[in-house]
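OP here, attaching both records as promised.
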Amino acid sequence: MVLPATFHFEEYMATKAIKVNKALDEAVPLPEKKPIKIHEAMRYSLFAGGKRVRPILCLASCELVGGDEAAAIPMACAVEMIHTMSLIHDDLPCMDNDDLRRGKPTNHKVFGGEMAVLAGDALLSLAFEHAAAKTTTEKVSQSRLVRAIGELAAAVGAEGLVAGQVVDLSSEGKAVDLKELEYIHIHKTSKLLEASVVCGAIIGGGSVVEVERLRSYARCVGLLFKVVDDILDVTKSSELGKTAGKDLSSEKATRRYPKLMGVEKARKFADELVEKAIHKLSYFDAARATPLYHLAYYLADRQN
């Protein structure tokens, strides 16, 4: 793949993030009428400092297949709403029981457990409402919109994110092998990242072949994200916004690649996943694929 000589990745990410943040701010405004607190709780976590990787992947894949970025903005927002919901619920005392997220007190620590549950529920329902109501059918056919919404729903359901969370919880205190660990990571984290890419490609008008190639790319970078997360958890401090080594010390099943295969082998596995992801992009126009190429390396090289 011959990439453009210059590509300002940081500028690209910052520009896309600004667009996503503006759209999210408009999608989840603070209303004047009650109950204001639920919207405050939703916005607290939604604007808690995320890098917007998933919505940016959605926009990049849309543009890669020749689609209009504006057409994918509602879906990109929906993806981030669902991602935020998953973080709020994951941090609850009955789940991973975390006090910090992105270096800030978690939602339930600020608003209470009941409100945190409701904030997550509200974001989940709003995500689908927003994608359905705000995606213009002048640019996106109804059939493609339905396909994309179905893809997103499957990613977070009983065979997606929820499945990963269930197996994660049931594995606490038990020995977990690499196959089981991969299942947890793919379902709990990678499925939504995969949906981000696939939904963008569907909205952008990608062919079946293009969508499936991008799905393969996304599966690689989704697992890559968690492998790197595992490595950082044992090599970094609270730069992650959580206490480093917490999951390992508590014998949770998450973040165990370094424990099961060692840090160096985990890093080698991450390198292999990057290579596989990049190979899937070789079938596309190099200029259009450049953002996804750099995003793969960004996820591999990130330090927080």
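Record two, same layout:
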Amino acid sequence: MAMGEAKPSVLIPMPSRDRDRDRDLLVPPAAVATHASPSTRAGAGSDDDDDESKPSSASAAAAAAQSGREAFHKVVHSWASKKFMTGCVILFPIAVTFYVTWWFFRFVDGFFSPIYAHLGINIFGLGFVTSIAFIFVVGVFMSSWLGASILGLGEWFIKRMPFVRHIYNASKQISAAISPDQNKHAFKEVVIIRHPRIGEYAFGFITSEVLLQGYSSEEHMCCVYVPTNHLYIGDIFLVSSNDVIRPNISVREGIEIVVSGGMSMPQVLSILESEPNQLSRIRSNRS
């Protein structure tokens, strides 16, 4: 080969990795993305969709779990509330009964227990037993002629006192209402009257009976006491005997109904005497 001749150029193939690196350095990434093949863009889009679908499915699962926990909490709260109220309803009357009984026991025991304590006798309940025995003896003694005479003499002195006599008379009327003797001062019968308007009725107690006389006629009236505040405050009505309904309950049962606010009311009430029988009885009383 001659010295003046040029040497033929030899092309050495470059590795594909080097070509890709050089292309990345020369061509901007945006252009590469623009000239990418449709299949490549479609693959990238599907990857993005998968990435977006994954958070949405995770949030739906979290929302479902949250709603499930809230529903479970509501069910547990409702069940616990019902059971708690059931326990309160059952235990409340028991607690009140024990409390009132214990208070009554301590109150009655307090009359004679100081006397026994002064004598050096400390026996639990001895004052209560003594008080009950004393009340029984007073009841037996006052039922006799001598006891009634002493009681009448004591009432004569009490009724001469300006302020004490009003308290004694009111308390005596209340105690006479539940007296087993059913004397003239006690509630005679439990009745139902139409009050305060047509279609409404009220419980009352007959305290006395009067004869209302007019110019040409007379009418048999009943004095009916209708309690408005438990038993010791109420209204008095003069009701015709024809308008009085007599149910099949005693005076004690009527007092229990009034004191309990109607909770001890029997489910069925029957009338002891019909209207024709009442009219015939009134006519016989007038004759």
